[in-house]
């Protein structure tokens, strides 16, 4: 089996695990269990809490002591057990704690997926910027496949979405031990300080102005991503409460409509090498930020009938919004760090986006929606919600353009494979 095919299978299963429930868990929470809306944000808080330290912690282990693919495999097996346990939760509190355990094991594997792939491609003498996006796109395809399986089997509001996810996690966990070896790059290196001894060198990146601004705005964009994860499918499902839209295609197949976002990702991922080499990380990130403005703005005016095109266009734009920030950001971090802190640096990126960013997105948005956007009828003012999110993304775009200083060097990107 070729190296690229092995890495494709890893990426496909990595995001299949997530796609089986991430977009549909709101339907299970509200529709099947009828648990409190006020507590739902806590479910997505688990992504943030676990990303605050676990990606960096396991990244340090992978940099200094244990092969990354072994940590990766064990994490998926344990995470699969926890996801299976979600179906056994009797109340929202139990669900939260089980989900937290599941995310403690799953979230660091996202960064480890990149580390394992980058290492294998470099060792084979391949250009990572050119080769990785074509491999990573299969992760998005896996996410789409899981969404479709969950929706088309009628399980978007049942516990079977967790069974689907758990089975995929067990398969990937076992498969991980057959992946190319990714040994610690710092193993055997004498440490002259406590920071080096504990593998905390990656945190020194915050002392670099350019990297500090990059990580800070990665956090803000992580909050924007969280808003989509939390409210996208619920937004479409809420049209059911409006009689004229109750029987529309969008209501019955909301998850499939939302999957247009992931389908769009597959196209924009493949465009990353061209955009990064031609325009550099700053312009690519600005394109991502402006795409978030459009993503939210189109949602604010869309509906399942005459303005269905706005919902569809918003989902298409999501591909640029996500990929040009998340995938390009990961590649940028790899170009800026030494080999001996590669895994912990990817973990740091995860900490800022899916850690602090996710927490800010889930907590602050919940408070704002509850205080300002609940109508007397009890329905949410989705138009106002999305406009507010769009304004947030626009402010972030302007500030990033002013504060982030980076001169694009095409040679830096081209030498990434060496």
Describe this structure in words.
By secondary structure, this protein is mostly helical. It has one domain: Up-down Bundle (Growth Hormone, Chain: A), CATH 1.20.1250. It is 76% helix and 0% strand. It has 15 helices and no strands. Helix 1 packs antiparallel against helix 7 and helix 3 packs antiparallel against helix 13. It is globular and about 60 Å long. It starts with a helix and ends with a helix.
Core attributes:
418 residues; mainly alpha; 76% helix; 0% strand
Mean pLDDT: 85
**Class inferred from helices and paired strands:** mainly alpha
User: At CATH's second level, what is the architecture?
Assistant: Up-down Bundle
Q: For the record, what is the CATH homologous superfamily label?
A: MFS general substrate transporter like domains
* Structure summary, number of beta strands: 0
Instruction: Please write the string of helix (H) and strand (E) elements.
Output: HHHHHHHHHHHHHHH
Main sheet summary = none
Strand content: under 5%
Distance between the termini: 24 Å
Shape: globular
Discrete helix count:
15
**Which topology does CATH recognise?**
Growth Hormone, Chain: A
Cα-based radius of gyration, to the nearest Å: 21 Å
Percent helix, as a range, is over 70%
Give the total of domains: 1
Runs in which pLDDT lies below 50 for 5 or more consecutive residues are 188-199
Topology:
Blueprint (H helix, E strand, L loop, with lengths): L2 H17 L5 H9 L3 H28 L3 H18 L6 H32 L4 H25 L7 H16 L18 H4 L11 H29 L11 H4 L1 H48 L6 H29 L5 H31 L9 H22 L6 H5 L4
Helix pairs in contact: 1-5, 1-6, 1-7, 3-5, 3-13, 4-5, 4-7, 5-13, 6-11, 9-11, 9-13, 9-14, 11-12, 11-14, 12-13
